[in-house]
Structures are given as C-alpha cells and as structure tokens.
Write a structure and sequence with these properties.
Number of domains: 2
Radius of gyration: 22 Å
CATH superfamily of the largest domain: NADH Oxidase
Distance between the termini: 42 Å
Shape: globular
CATH class of the largest domain: Alpha Beta
CATH architecture of the largest domain: 3-Layer(aba) Sandwich
Number of helices: 15
Largest sheet: 8 strands, antiparallel
Length: about 550
C-alpha cells in the first residue's frame, strides 16, 4: 500500500464542499452515543486531591520559560498538573440532558483523547514502575501496569527519577459516531489541544515538557497497553498518538529526548503485570473503513522523527504581553467554547496583535514542546478590530515560507504591513474588504464565523512536509493547528472575550479565495473570537462534588 497516496485520498475524500459534506451516517444514533468517560474495570484507583488552595500566578508567566521554580513531584502537584490540563471544568444541563465540560477543548465535546502516566515516584517501592490511566470524571489515576526496575533504564535512559512520561491516545469511535469520515481529523485537532494544555500546565509547575520523536506508534501502543486486544472492545480500541517527556528539574542533567526502545525492552513491557479492562462505550458501532485506512497509513515507523532540532526562528518584535490582574489558573479553568457571538462588539488593535503574537513559535510554552519547524500559518478575516481595516490578512508563522506563500497565492494580493505595527511582525494585509459573508460561507455557513472580532483559517505547509518526513506527519500538522487553537482559547478568555474552534469548513473554497491551485498548502482548522452570548437555557454545576465523583459511571459488573 502506498501510504502517501492513502493520506492524500483520505484528505480529499474527507473535505466538505459546497455541493456535499464529508460522509456521516446522516443522523445521530442516540441509542449508541458513546459513554463520555473511559475507565478500566477492576483496576485500582488513586483519587487525586481537589480544591487545593494555590497562590495566584500571573497569566503571562505561562509564556516565559523558567519563570517559575520547579515544584517537587508528588501526588499533590500531579493533581494540579492534570487539574489544569485534562480535568473536568463544569457540568452543564439543559432540560433533562446533562454533560461535562473539560479544561482541554474537544470537537463536539466528545473527547476522544485519553491520557496515561508512566513514572516511578508514586510507588513506595522505588524499584517498581507504574503506568496509570487518568480519569477526568473522578480526577483519579487508575493503575494499568507495574514493571520491573530494569524497564526504567530501557525507557528513560539517564533521566532523573523525578522525570515521567505522559502518553496520549484517541478513541476514534467517539468522533466517528457523530462526524463520520472527518472524525480522524478532529481526533488529531484534539491531540493538539491536549498537548498545548499539558505543556502550559507543566509550565505552571515549573516543569519542561517535550514531545518524544523517536518512539514508533507500535512501540507506544506497547508502553500504554493499547496493543492488548483482550482489554478492549475491538471497535473502541485506542489509537496511540504521542509521547511526552516531562522533566521536573532545571539542573541540565536530562536529555531532551529518549532513545528508541529495543525489541527486548518491548517484550519486557508486554510481559509486565497488567490490570483492568476498558469499559464498553456503545452497544453497536458503524464501520468506517476509510478511517481505518488513514489510521494505518499515518502510523509512525521506528525512528522516523527528525534527528535535529527545529530551525532557528527570528526574535519576533515585542508586543505588549501584559494582562494585569489575570490569574493563569483562573483563565485556564474558565475556558469555554462559545456557542454564539454578539456580532457587534469590537476589540482593540493591541489585544488583536497580542492574540496573534502568542501563536508565534519560539523557545517558550507551548511551542518549545515541538520537534519540528512551524508548518501552520493563519489566514485572518478581520471584522471588527479598532484601527485595523476589515479585510483578509495572513500571519506567516515561519518567515522562511513567506516567498512560497506569496508565489502560491493570488498575484493581486497586496502583502502590505500594517501602519504602526512593530517592524518585523509577520502580519500582512492581502486585501481590504468586508469579509463577514465570506467567512460565514466558508465556515459551513455558520454565523459565528462572521459575528466575532475576527475569524481565521489555519493554512498548513502540506505536500512537502508529508513527502519529506513521511505520511505519519499528517497527524502532526493537525496537532500544531490544535495547539494554536488552545492558545487562542486562552488568549480570548484573558482579553475578556470567548472563542471556539470550527471544524466544519469548506476546504477547497478557502483555497480558491487564496488562489491556491494544488496541495502545496491546505486549510486544516478554523477559529473565531468575539464576545459570546449567554444561553439562558443552560444551567451550570461544579465540576466535582465532594460526595459523588461518579455520576456518569454505571454500576460495576
């Protein structure tokens, strides 16, 4: 099988078009809506502490590396780490329907992303290593496996004992239940959301987090126990996605990455003591062969990652980053996806530029987690920004790509810098126009794309990176887009506004607007920012109750 051809075929097939949407069931099969939480039946569970009193942290410190002292690794700090990255943030209710929101955003609030923790520090016996599954429903860690001591050296090398790993996986069925063939894309967006959420939460702990480029998808499946078919309903298997190394010291004794595991190490991991079996999410499942094909085609082979760090980037011109009085944890925990915008409010040019500035890559969270150069650029529809003319703009996040972008796009575009914007800030005016109807039309006719301060599409370097790295890099492009989305979510909250990702958009009509004629660049995600309109029908409840953390869990068999 030619995996590159498979990826290209999936990408084209899963595009929404004006004359047809990507394939779904055509209806919502409510009887088989997936259970909102994954847990492992009969696995022991360690409840993490809730409602910890923590001192405020200035919001801007999350973007300043090493600005906070490293916290010690213990259960209390691990609780904070997960609480401000992957935990529940609220319960909502409308009529008799009740659902949970989480700190990390998700397409359709379906949350296909699962997280696993590999470490030694929780065990009273330091010679023992454990793998845990994080359960957002109860803010708890479920013990999945224990490993012999020699596994540490094979997995972690010379990392300090207080280092640990977080692995992320996707239950693709969660998204496919609603979104059909396009679900694979949305799962990858959500991995990006989670990567950024974890990196920023690690920064609040004074820790470093970097993605591991050297482990294959198959080896990651073994480490996380996802290759144990006997533990899963086949249609609800988890697809291993990414492994992150978290270092809790700043003394320079750690390596920024890990070696690829040997076959002997994988055999030791597979023969460890494993506990629990994944709960069933749905009674029946609809097959999506095209998703199976692209999932197989984008698995990362052994040692496929880049062996050199990303290319050096320029020092972007300074933009005011101060958000006085904003507590980082409050902003993270109050993040919500807006359902409607007022269509009238405006934002200042300073706030607009600050939001865009925080999406620019550099040696700071969350962008210092990545091992590849920036691949995503922002095509911005400006609607209501003070001292910025309405029109179509582009933020070039990798200056080495500016000439390629200009050559690929319409030759009538202006490519002008904005008056008063700091020299070197990579935002360019393409054309002035009232873009509200256009933004609405290309975002599946959704009013929310026209009713904010601005909306945008995330344009990826597409064909060349996939050719250069391999088909597996298709996933990484969506991860980077999802990370940008998470930054914009937080920036909107810090500015007193609200935002949401838009996964439904018409791919090729956006390319036509830009004058793009081939797959050199592709639109991968849309986003909008503005002032939200409250829905009076919704009731809100605290995320966790001190007396009942398992409201959604059915009785154990």
């Amino acid at each position: 099988m030619n995996f590159s051809t498979t990826v290209e075929a999936y990408h084209q097939r899963s595009k929404h078009r004006f004359d047809r949407y990507a394939a779904t069931l055509g209806y919502l099969d409510w009887a088989n809506q997936p259970h909102p939480f994954r847990y492992y039946e009969r696995a022991s569970s360690t409840r993490l502490e809730l409602n910890r009193e923590l001192p405020p942290i200035e919001y801007d410190q999350i973007y300043r590396p090493d600005s906070l002292p490293p916290a010690p690794l213990n259960l209390e700090i691990l609780s904070d780490f997960f609480f401000y990255s992957l935990a529940l943030s609220a319960w909502k209710q409308a009529g008799e329907k009740r659902w949970a929101l989480r700190v990390n955003p998700s397409s359709g609030n379906l949350h296909p992303t699962e997280a696993y923790l590999f470490l030694s520090a929780l065990s009273p016996d330091e010679a023992s290593l454990e793998l845990y599954h994080y359960v957002s429903e109860s803010h708890a860690l479920e013990l999945r496996a224990t490993f012999p001591h020699e596994v540490w050296q094979g997995v972690m090398g010379h990392q300090p004992r207080t280092s640990f790993l977080v692995g992320l996986s996707s239950i693709i069925w969660r998204e496919a239940w609603k979104y059909g063939e396009r679900a694979f894309r949305y799962c990858q967006h959500d991995i990006g959301h989670a990567i950024a959420a974890l990196r920023i939460s690690a920064a609040l702990c004074g820790w470093q987090l970097t993605l591991v480029p050297t482990w294959s998808t198959e080896d990651l499946a073994s480490l996380l126990g996802l290759d144990r078919k006997q533990d899963f309903i086949s249609e609800e298997h988890e697809e291993p996605e990414v492994l992150a190394l978290i270092t809790t010291t700043t003394d320079g004794t750690h390596s920024p990455s890990l070696s690829s595991p040997s076959k002997e190490l994988i055999q030791k991991i597979q023969s460890a003591d494993w506990y629990g079996r994944a709960n069933r999410l749905s009674q029946e499942h609809a097959p999506w062969p095209v998703i199976d094909e692209v999932t197989m085609a984008t698995k990362k082979p052994w040692q496929a990652g880049p062996t050199t760090p990303p290319h050096a980037l320029p020092d972007w011109p300074p933009v005011s980053l101060l958000r006085p009085g904003c507590d980082a944890r409050n902003i993270i925990y109050q993040r919500r996806s807006c359902l409607g915008l007022d269509g009238a409010s405006r934002t200042s040019r300073d706030d607009f530029l600050r939001m865009l500035h925080c999406t620019l890559p550099g040696p700071h969270p969350p962008w210092d987690a990545l091992y590849w150069p920036p691949m995503i650029h922002l095509v911005v529809f400006v609607h209501r920004v003070d001292d910025v003319a309405p029109g179509l703009y582009i933020l070039v996040r990798n200056p080495q790509k500016k000439d390629l972008l200009r050559e690929a796009m319409r030759d009538t575009f202006m490519w002008e810098t904005l008056p008063g914007v700091p020299e070197g800030f990579p935002l360019f005016l393409l054309t002035t126009a009232d873009c509200r109807e256009t933004a609405q039309a290309v975002s599946c006719h959704q009013d929310i794309a026209a009713d904010g301060f601005f909306s945008l599409g995330m344009l990826a370097d597409f064909a060349e990176p996939i050719r250069h790295y391999g088909p597996w890099f298709y996933r990484n492009l969506f991860w980077e887009a999802g990370m940008i989305g998470q930054v914009l979510y937080l920036e909107a909250e810090a500015a007193g506004a609200r935002s949401t990702g838009i996964g439904c958009y018409f791919d090729d009509p956006v390319h036509q607007i830009l004058g793009l004629a081939d797959s050199q660049f592709q639109d991968l995600y849309h986003f909008t920012v503005g002032v939200h309109v409250e829905d009076a029908r919704l009731q809100s409840w605290p995320a966790y109750s001190s007396t009942d953390h398992h409201k959604m869990r059915p009785p154990a068999p």
